[in-house]
Amino acid sequence: MAAPGLAAPRRVPPELAARYRADGQWDSRGLADGVEAAAARRPGAPALADNERTLTSAQLAAAVAAGVDLLAEHGVRAGDGVVLVSGNTRHGVIAYHALLRAGATVVVLDRRCGAAEVRHALAVLPSRPFVIVPTGERDRLGEALATADTLALDHFDGPATAGDPPAVRWAEPDRDRPAVILFSSGTTGRPKGVLHSLNTLTAGAANMARITSADESAVVFLVSPLTSITGLMQLHLAADQGGALVLEDRFEPAATLRRLNDVGATLLGGAPVIAERLLAAATRTTTPSADTASDNGSGSGTDGGSGTDGGSGTDGDTEGDAEADSGNRVGIGLRTLALGGSMLPRPLLELASRTFGIEIARVYGSSEAPNFSGSLPSDELERRLADDGALMPGGEVRVGSAAHPREGLLRGPSVFLGYLDPADDEAAFEGDWYRSGDQIDTDSGRLTVVGRLKEVVNRNGLKIALSEIDAAVQGLAGVTEFASFGLPDATTGERLAVAVVVAGDATVTLDDVLTHLRAGGLATRKLPEQLVRWDGPLPRTASGKIVRSALARDAAAHPGDLAERLHDHPH
User: Fold this and answer.
1) Which CATH number fits domain 31-174: 3.50.50.60, 3.40.50.980, 3.40.50.1110, 3.40.1650.10?
2) Rounded distance, CA 56 to CA 563, Å?
3) CA–CA dist 547, 485 (Å, integer)
4) What predicted TM-score, i.e. pTM, was given to this entire model?
5) For strand 149-152 and strand 130-133, is the pairing parallel, antiparallel, or unpaired?
6) What are the tens digits of pLDDT across the range 200-247?
């Protein structure tokens, strides 16, 4: 069942691998050790919960052991490639643990994936691949699954009652070979298969633990898709530290906030849009006073409504119950918010930190290099606002690539093995260094990410970083969402546009945007020439990133304003 090529990606140079092992960034521990140790040490402690059920550490260990046996019964062996289709459910976590324990290479897909994504994933596996899929998704994906052997995800579950931890002799999979394949978001072009080993995943999770001070007391609340790098990092973090992982499969701000508080969640990581919506719900629920702003206990949150399906969710009925529990008078009980993936709005960070007493952990990374840098626990808020944090142990940055003088080249223990298609590696690496595609500045071991190299608008030869425009638009009155993007222009090559989602009955014009940007000091040569008033939420990936290519593609279908030079010749 093993797919040709899965066992032979580009190799980490032996001298680097030896260094990572000597320094302890790569070691012999893995998920099995965390699950087994937690079951032995605290068998009755909560370890895994979804929207239906909570499993103790002992139950999780027993479920994983049973899952390994189930896979063996269906012919899954070490080195096999298996597609795992899952949402944020306990079944998916158990199956993931079991597959890694069996030594399989797990190809992860979100349950909302389309048939084309399944076919693309199956193409990397042998002619008769194996797929674990939720029962409810089998019919929808039927045609794409026609050539595969399938197993219902629902079979991976915990025992009905808690018992003694199982006497399991965990398998010892090869920690250097590909363990997981996840696909890049594919906002432009075809998705690329990102290969990680147990070494790189464990290193990334250890970095997150350093950034967030997470330990066995952590209750990790996962809203991001389990099958994204953000989700996998939090799964590994909880297991490696012996903490608890709580899964939220259907994000709706008020209902999610209430559950987050009810379970005593201490850590949430993901895209800023998720934090914005949760904090907005908390703000509407409770107005904190000066003497309660630092009261950060857990308790009852707001009344929720019906959930809506989506990775980043939609802002639904968040009016809720205005009566806050006395143990959580500020409306939200998190200790830490770990945020990354896009420009972090300063008002969001200040609201979380100063109003709700939540520690902000700023994280920089990607599917290819998770948790590469981040805030240090000792950093003051102003330091966290200023940059993208310190390099994690073993991480190195070199500024300047053959393609761009400010591109950041990355090397470190959490950097991926390479892409599934070796041809993709040719453009992605310079020797041992991964080309991040980000403009990066470095200073005394800390990083500042200026923006994506490709996220620029070239107007009459002037390259305008979209991240700079996004930062400048922050705080524009009457706007709930916004993003800058480029459009073709017959005169200038490209022109700069800004899409906004307007709050309620507010009115926002291009002149309003320009006035705001000038007041903030943005240079005239960088001002946008088109405003697009977007109907509904801006398009995002499952992990919450704005899809700028979709903004450009669909801009003409939405109302807006044009600069004077475009009135007669808008194209």
Assistant:
1) 3.40.50.980
2) 60
3) 10
4) 0.80
5) parallel
6) 999 999 999 999 999 999 999 999 999 999 999 999 999 999 999 999
